[in-house]
Predict the 3D structure of the following.
Amino acid sequence: MTEVRGAAGPNGDTHARRAPGTPCWVSLMVHGLTTTEEFYGALFGWEFQPGPQQLGPCVRALLDGREVAGIGQLPPDLQLPIAWTPYFASDDVDLTAETARLCGGTVGVGPLDAAEAGRMAIASDPSGAVFGIWQGSAHLGTALTGVPGTPVWDELLTFETSSVAKFYETVFGYEEEPVVSADFDYVTLHVGGRPVAGIHGVGLSLPRDRGPHWLTYFEVADADATLREVAELGGQVLKPARDSAHGRVATVADPEGAVFSVIQSPH
């Protein structure tokens, strides 16, 4: 992680349509929707309301009445990895999905309409990391950022950055800013000169059971207290809290195994 600031205005609002390539939403597909709601409700203070049902039962998570994330229920017979998936904004989801396909990616779902909310697709890059594409209509995406309980950064953990960064640059039009370091393989993706996501090449230290994957960071008020809560609520602490240049960071998993990071920004 080299930069952890969302697209929020001074009061944390983000109502404007996102520029293409900007992370605009995160969603999670699980087997136990009710127990997952209980976990994140207790951890982040989220409340829930029903969302578009195109892909089965789902809810939108709200914080202070504003949408921050989506959670859906997997069909019982579908054995997919339980993981948070970031969605990147697009002005034309069909064109973006086709570009991803032409660049060696795979489109697994869609493009399809999500009621009046917008149009979406779920794809994977050439290394297999899954991401979403969102063309907002009534629903432009996360309506609140920069406060505890909201997504603040998305980072791709992969084998090496050079080839996969070219994929995302072509599909979404990112500008790249590599970290110049002999032992740290990291590229920050920019939209309009602003950092929006990162790609971290971790080589053989990538978890064997997961492969390349996107990792979402959520803002928290107190990282250490959050880790205690995660454990009490039935989750797991995967990487204990540590201080970084951008705040106190830790990585955890929810009760179904969905991995995410939390960050306490420096004050």
Remarks:
- The two ends are 18 Å apart (CA to CA).
- DSSP finds four helices and 16 strands in the chain.
